[in-house]
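Lecture notes, continued. The same structure-token format from the folding unit now serves as the input rather than the output. Read the line below as a description of shape only.
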């Protein structure tokens, strides 16, 4: 079974790292392929890493979660977004 590829996006590094450490991603069927501290960085990683899912915070500098969602939809319409 192939694991779903996920990117975590949050402007607080401690929150991102806690989410990565606390969840049994493999057991849930996911592989964390990257993380980003803002929407602009996340958009670059979405383009490069082609994740199946983006888990994002809504309030972030430069490009918030809603703006990121809109851009991901244009770039990769099959990518699922969780806010």
């Amino acid at each position: 079974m192939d694991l779903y590829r996920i990117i975590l996006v949050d402007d607080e590094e401690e929150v991102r790292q806690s989410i990565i450490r606390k969840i049994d991603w493999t057991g849930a069927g996911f592989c964390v392929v990257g993380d980003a501290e803002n929407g602009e960085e996340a958009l670059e990683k979405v383009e490069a890493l082609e994740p199946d899912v983006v888990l994002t915070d809504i309030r972030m500098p430069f490009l918030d979660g809603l703006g990121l969602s809109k851009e991901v939809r244009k770039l990769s319409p099959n990518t699922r977004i969780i806010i």
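Point for the exam: The chain is about 40% helix and 25% strand.
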